[in-house]
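Give me the fold.
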Amino acid sequence: MSTKEINELLREVGHGHLGCALEGHPYVVPMHYYFDEPAIYIFTTVGMKTKYMDVNPEVCLQVEDVQNLQHWRSVTVTGRAEHITEQGDIDRVMEFVKTRNPALSPAINRTWIDAWGRAEEMALYRIHPDEMTGRTTDGISSQGS
């Protein structure tokens, strides 16, 4: 896949699997993301994935679009996750996130209560891609970023 095709897939899909590791233990979790070339943003709750990324910021995001066994595309992004903590940066990124996902607007605050009454603290990360690779039923390519 060309860089243009990789970026198109990242813009179109919006969800994938985030992989991270801590002390030799891998962890992979489904994740929504927001692509603003070249950065990828993750708006999530504090938990195991944030613990892993805060200690070891090296991450991998895998995104796919499978129509059927003969027609699919897949992109893997490796890079470094940065926990965004400055209020000005948070405000700018959250405006971008809200334009991509208006339904998220009521949940956008630092803490919210889930369906079971538990407090959930929110966290925002920026992934700085080091490498992006793409594969389709038409073949494979690797594009450094």
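The radius of gyration is 16 Å.
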